[in-house]
């Protein structure tokens, strides 16, 4: 059984993955919490506990600045990477802004038609 210390918010936001200051891969944030991220990526040259940086920009905002977060890898799977934001130096404003953006832009997925409607 999985135990989460903070609520995860699903979403989709493209990003770049940096290793040792160099961009090495692209990916997409699939869910996030105040404590961590899961990013979908096919990049596999990563070790557990390795520190990475992820860089993203909120597409609908007027700002042109990219934001960067540091994290260490706590999980690897065929679908991507689980990253922990705790224990590394991050701007808490950036984490809060990411959580707010994902919350505002999350659209629930309906896999089955609602009762009384016909799927086309």
Automatic annotation (TrEMBL):
<dbReference type="InterPro" id="IPR009875">
    <property type="entry name" value="PilZ_domain"/>
</dbReference>
<protein>
    <submittedName>
        <fullName>PilZ domain-containing protein</fullName>
    </submittedName>
</protein>
<feature type="domain" description="PilZ">
    <location>
        <begin position="4"/>
        <end position="92"/>
    </location>
</feature>
<dbReference type="Pfam" id="PF07238">
    <property type="entry name" value="PilZ"/>
</dbReference>
<dbReference type="GO" id="GO:0035438">
    <property type="term" value="F:cyclic-di-GMP binding"/>
</dbReference>
